[in-house]
Design goal:
Length: 430
Amino acid sequence: MDKYVIKGGSPLVGEVEIGGAKNAALAILTAALMTDEPVRVENIPDVSDINVLLEAIAVIGAQVDRIDRHAVVIDGKTIGSVSVDYEFIKKIRASYYLLGALLGKYKHAEVPLPGGCNIGSRPIDQHLKGFRALGATVNIRHGVIVASAENLHGAHIFLDMVSVGATINIMMAAALAHGNTIIENAAREPHVVDIANFLNSMGANIKGAGTDVIRIRGVEKLHKTTYAIVPDMIEAGTFMFAAAATCGDVLIKNVIPKHLEAMTAKLTEIGCEVQEFDDALRVIAKSRLGRTHVKTLPYPGFPTDMQPQISVALCLANGTSIVTESIFENRFKYCDELARMGALIKVEGNTAIIDGVDGFTGARVSAPDLRAGAALVIAGLAAEGITVVDDIIYILRGYEDFDQKLRGLGAEIERVEDERGIQKFRLRVG
Ligand code: UD1
């Protein structure tokens, strides 16, 4: 299995370009199936989650033409099956968006129940509650969610908790229901807005995305469109904290600074300078970082997908910080790996108490999931000596050309296949 091998200890300096948002792309590519006309989607990231989803879409019969690395044309006219294979669901949980899209369009969908996940239990009861409110019968048979309806009708739905996935899934199905749907306590994440904008560009009538009340007036059918996905706020945030942890100076290009405000605020609090431009941010860390407390929350709060990355920075800060994870219960698994690099972290329930240390020393560590994997790479970049990050298959799910982009900032990092690759790297960097 591939690994990253890193020689750390130098600040990241330079410019980096951010790609399209993976989480928005997963939903938009699925929603593209909801018309029988060709839909062109641009600025998709070339990461494994997206490529697996495109495969799943092709397997149910849609035509998928990859125009180039970042653009695809999808034609849902030729879909021959509303039943999705477990192989795909196992690999990407977000293929549950196929439920909302296919139910909306064909009034019938069969999608295997996604299994557990390594950041915690991830129920989808709110998605199913929404479909039922729209008039669908939803049963689970032999591990497969079977949703069907004679007709979908609008409904007033109050989500029990703020869920990005449920908000998007219900929004998709309701776009083609009869009458008006109101989703209360909706998620406000930028990608919820992006999917609403995308559906509207196909002729849907969705208002209020970005607030906690979304109103959807169902339409008869959707039509073709061309759409470019928003920049990935989590990829951008990862580079922001990589700059901070390595005492670097990085210009992060192709971002929407407004989406990054929670991260900008924390970086400023711990002593970094953050300069905002129209579509770029520059993060400058001149001296040792300061401590702070942080709690993950739905947008516009601090994102759970940035929790491991800020924790790495706080491990190197002066003083004690407390990090509280309020979205997923099992998201501190990387802390044991960080401890091997010299971090002082104590995890109690959903809280990590971090005593800042002067520095990390390189070690062999293993990525437990996507974002924690990226955080371990940041730790390796800040550490003295060589770090090997195993199981980078998780990181490749969501970061395009991660090693290449870091090398562009002066990092000594390489993707290698085996122990020989590690030895060669060691010999080269001395
Ligand atoms: C999405 C993101 C993920 C991010 C998360 C929170 C995608 C593909 N993934 O995941 O990267 O970490 O938002 O920002 O966009 N919940 C329920 N019942 C439900 C749905 C959710 O109890 O039916 C709970 C979850 O267990 C979790 C919380 O609600 O505790 C938020 O989950 P949700 O926003 O739905 O996360 P995802 O959409 O799965």
